[in-house]
Write a structure and sequence with these properties.
single chain, 34% helix
């Protein structure tokens, strides 16, 4: 296979993985739990600030509960549930056959900020961190088989001092 063929294959795989990552966040932010579940393998391992969960159905139930409780933390100045939106920043993707690894910077925007002089809510960055993912390709579709969500502002949940991309490359 030529270098050009390899580059074309990598570009296609990367585009599919970036699409998966975006679909995951849209589903999460719009409480579309069926679409959210469709991004995970049945035996996915999901680690986040509340612990580690194994299995797609268990993950979906935990996220539903988390989303119900998060409105108690994120609310606008009038007491209405806050609108949360996740944003991906720089993303590094390593693909080896039907396995892939990602490292991505994320932040979460919310409308829970103070009102400005025009009586509008000022968006705030409520949280941020790193996604450490492992993916598998099953029946031509990329899925998360492991997702570790690090929160840079929570003690014990921050990323290491080492460049996360170098750690990913070493692990793969």
């Amino acid at each position: 296979m030529s270098q050009m063929d390899e580059a074309i294959i990598y570009a296609a795989e990367r585009a599919a993985i970036e699409d998966l990552m975006a679909r995951y966040l849209f589903a999460l932010d719009w409480n579309d739990f069926d679409s959210f579940a469709a991004t995970l393998t049945e035996d996915c391992v999901f680690e986040y600030a509340r612990g580690t969960i194994v299995g797609r159905d268990n993950i979906v139930e935990a996220i539903k509960g988390f989303k119900e409780r998060i409105v108690e933390i994120y609310c606008d100045v009038d007491g209405n549930p806050g609108v949360l939106r996740h944003v991906l920043g720089q993303t590094v993707i390593r693909v080896e056959g039907d396995r892939a690894w990602t490292r991505a910077f994320w932040h979460e925007m919310s409308n829970d900020g103070p009102r400005n002089k025009h009586d509008r809510l000022t968006p705030t960055v409520g949280s941020f961190g790193i996604y450490e993912d492992e993916l598998v390709k099953r029946d031509g579709t990329w899925l998360f088989c492991s997702r570790r969500i690090l929160n840079e502002f929570l003690p014990g949940r921050e990323s290491s001092k080492e460049n996360p991309v170098l750690a990913m490359d070493a692990a793969s």
